[in-house]
Amino acid sequence: MANVLQGVGAATALSATKSIDSRKFHLPSRRSLSERKGSFLVVRSDGRRIQGSRARRAEQLITSAVATKADSSAASTASKPGHELLLFEALREGLEEEMDRDPHVCVMGEDVGHYGGSYKVTRGLADKYGDLRVLDTPIAENSFTGMGIGAAMTGLRPIVEGMNMGFLLLAFNQISNNCGMLHYTSGGQFKIPIVIRGPGGVGRQLGAEHSQRLESYFQSIPGIQMVACSTPYNAKGLMKAAIRSENPVILFEHVLLYNLKERIPDEEYICSLEEAEMVRPGEHVTILTYSRMRYHVMQAAKTLVNKGYDPEVIDIRSLKPFDLYTIGNSVKKTHRVLIVEECMRTGGIGASLTAAITENFHDYLDAPVVCLSSQDVPTPYAGTLEEWTVVQPAQIVTAVEKLCQ
């Protein structure tokens, strides 16, 4: 999938080190390493465990938790192995595991230290690792983002938290001209293994300035990878993979998803930074989505199934580069595509994805690609008006019905 990013001229800005692929890494936890020496374990989406040689054969096929057509994942949660975590706790667990594993990993941002972060992702880390590895900064996004980039150039692996992703507009020059381009402009002398993360998206009456979707702003920067988490499982896996990557990665977290709960494996795992997740297999239409809209789509999918439709739902997760392998195979099967995003319609992720699908899979389409996006207006503070600006499940149902006529 790196070829997709290379095709737009960003290849030289990315390190030659490849992203970590979750299909190749299903590691036992450090706590049980001595007890499980030489063993190999895969946790299936249905909760079953496969060990030994069978697991090695299966691991190429089992890459992520996949909801069945009957959406029975919630009913079987209690029987699954592992432990339950909220999404913000999963992010913290992934971060803590990486700080234990690699002393070069550090965190910086506003209130990330003893306060524990605006959404408690870093709670308790300052007490465990000290004020130098969990660094509270002044309210100066341009300054501490630049400091993080400089730290990455010298060999550290910083995680920079934006208290709100909208605030990172103040650091846009650092992210664009330095973070994304220094590997290229230095002739490969510097790597920038930095993770920039924080909450974003439309919340509940947070107002226009705190409801930004910055993925559309950052997608055009050469050398930057972008991923969006949507479940506790992939939040932890993407956090760990982003920290280990030699490339600068922006991890988008939605402000309304932090309290989602899911059972995740006890064993160490990571998710690929360049791989989409098949949420629901289907035959009639491909629905591509990410972040919070995944849940609006799955709500609509229940209605669509009752009406006789069989939608295939894919959480693209990797916003740059796109996983055109997974997307393409789905398009070849269903021949119809609906994109559902919370990003703005003009210049958003959906616009880029529509262009990529049209360019690569036009001959397989039986209908034009349809994209449902947020309206191109500042997000209102009033709750009823706020809902009108964001795609709702009923709109998804109507769009699928029209698309499948």
Report the radius of gyration as a whole number of Å.
20 Å
The stretches of 5 or more residues where confidence is low (pLDDT under 50) are 1-77
- Helical content (DSSP H or I, runs of 4+): 25-40%
Q: Within the largest sheet, what's the order of strands?
A: 5-4-6-7-9-8-14
Characterize the largest beta sheet: strand count, sense, and whether it forms a barrel. 7 strands, mixed
In sequence order, what are the helices and strands, one letter per element? HEEHEHEHEHEHHEHEHEEEEHEEHEHEHH
- Mean pLDDT across every amino acid position: 84
User: What proportion of the residues form beta strands (DSSP E)?
Assistant: 15-25%
Q: Helix count, per DSSP?
A: 14
C-alpha termini separation = 33 Å
* Number of E strands: 16
Q: Strand pairing plus helix content: what structural class? A: alpha/beta
* Outline: globular
Polypeptide structure, described:
It contains 14 helices and 16 strands. The chain has helices at 2-6, 52-58, 87-101, 125-129, 141-153, 172-179, 182-185, 215-218, 232-244, 293-306, 324-334, 349-361, 383-389, 393-403; strands at residues 41-43, 49-51, 83-86, 105-109, 134-136, 157-161, 195-200, 225-228, 249-254, 261-264, 277-280, 285-289, 311-315, 318-320, 337-344, 370-374. The strands form 4 sheets. It has a 7-stranded mixed beta sheet, with helices on both faces. Residues 1-77 have low confidence and may be disordered.
